[in-house]
Structure prediction request, 253 residues.
Amino acid sequence: MPRSLHGGRHELGQNFLTHRPTVDRLASLVSRSSGPILEIGAGDGALTRALARLGRPLTAIEIDEHRVEELRRSLGGVRVEHADALRYPLLAPVLVGNIPFHLTTPLLRRLLVTGAWERAILLTQWEVARKRAGVGGGTMLTAQTAPWFSFELHGRVPSWCFRPRPSVDGGILGISRRERPLVAAAERGAYERFVRSLFTGRGRGLGGALTHAARLSRGDALRLIRRAGIDPRALPRDLDAAQWAALWAALRS
Prediction:
């Protein structure tokens, strides 16, 4: 296939999923949702074809114009758009895609602040999927968004399941928008700054970090932590979504 105007395989991060069981797994996860589907980065259409069999409205976006033309010829019932995932409106209830590994972080950041989607099933780099799901400890980005979204890890995808083979494995990450946010939307900016201050601030453990971030005495910081039902020996990466929300509520009160 000719080289895209946007670059070759390396520039576009094209690692096409060729493992049929993984394709079927992604389609099965999407089948548990409802409503129109937006596929991000359709590539050669392996996943697109499986999604089309679900019989729901499906839009597939792809930045490689040559693959867009081929998909339009072979998938008459699918709306195929020549578009950049970093700019295309994320308005469908369900998002799914084999995300270009080099764009994983900017795409995730955009998904978590943009659009009105309800459910996302994403094939990302394994380390990204694992960290976002909180396996082995939470990250700052996960903690900052957890009051509005829940994260699930649905399995690891070995690198040999892709063509060309990438240098790292993939992971299937599920993200759901909470029907009832744990923190009010109007407080999101302040809450995100609070989380950042605990992850990046001075102090030993959660108590020390809260002492400096909130300008409290050590005793007041420990009382707030206990009021939120959190072990004072915990670290920021140890807290789950409910504990972050409880700590924020205790501080606000």
Q: What stands out?
A: The chain is about 40% helix and 20% strand. The longest strand covers residues 149-157. Residues 224 and 250 are 6 Å apart (CA to CA). Confidence is low (pLDDT under 50) at residues 6-12.
